Amino acid sequence: MASLRIERYTVGPFATNCYLVWTEPVREAVIIDPGGDAGSIFQALNAGGLRPAAVLLTHGHVDHVMALPAILARYDVPVFAHEAEREIIGSVPMQAQLFGLPPVPQITVTDWIAEGDLIVGEEMHFRVLHTPGHSPGSCCYLLKEEIFVGDTLFESSVGRTDLPGGDYSLLIRSIREKLFVLPDETVVYPGHGGETTVGREKKFNPFLRGAP
């Protein structure tokens, strides 16, 4: 039986969580949110004997995509992002300039996805949940009892909504209606900081305490 493996790497100037997800013995890895330090990501792939199979973007802010051009220069892999994030992803070069970062070229997305889509790989089926609020096309990727949420939800916090396209009320609704209906034991892998669970955030998150 295949064994699921998840490794987190903190990358880039904003300490973004980049995840490598694969199953043993297949060893084809999905890269989630390559936010910088492409060399470190390559090193992790090589050290684990992993072949990248796809890149999943939870959203299009520059701190979650900075290493993508370098990855695509080395590997021919599909890149998935939600269709409502086209404008945000299109603005990545401008985002880099506004934050005083080194230039980042235009980001390439090969597959625009929507709510309920399945991204299928060897032994891994990711279900797409559209969770707008942090940005219009923010989405989460549910894999069995694990969910990768980008900047939608954090341990004891939620994503910021003061950037273009952000909407606090919509963010809270997305969390309540899309994430908090999952089993309490579902492990939450956020875009920054440590892992948590749906049950813990329902009980203790000060922005969401009392959620059904």
What does this structure look like?
The protein is α/β, with parallel strands linked by helices and 212 residues long. The strands form 3 sheets. The protein has a 6-stranded mixed β-sheet, covered by helices on one side. A 6-stranded mixed β-sheet has the order 7-8-9-10-13-14. The protein has a two-stranded antiparallel sheet with strand order 11-12. It is globular, with a radius of gyration of 16 Å. 23% of the residues lie in helices and 32% in strands. The chain is built from 6 helices and 14 strands.
Would you list the SSEs in sequence order as H and E? Answer: EEEHEHEHHEEEEEEEHEEH
- What is the assigned CATH homologous superfamily? Ribonuclease Z/Hydroxyacylglutathione hydrolase-like
Q: In angstroms, what separates the terminal alpha carbons?
A: 35 Å
User: What general outline do the C-alpha atoms trace?
Assistant: globular
Q: Specify the biggest β-sheet.
A: 6 strands, mixed
Average the pLDDT over all residues and give the rounded result: 96
Number of self-contained structural domains: 1
For the record, the CATH architecture stands as 4-Layer Sandwich
Number of helices: 6
Fold-level CATH name: Metallo-beta-lactamase, Chain A
Query: What is the count of β-strands?
Result: 14
User: What's the CATH first level?
Assistant: Alpha Beta
Low-confidence stretches: none
Range of helix content: 10-25%
What structural class do helix, strand and pairing data support?
Answer: alpha/beta
Q: Work out the strand percent.
A: 25-35%
For the CA atoms, what is the radius of gyration?
16 Å
- Strand order in space, largest sheet: 1-2-3-4-5-6
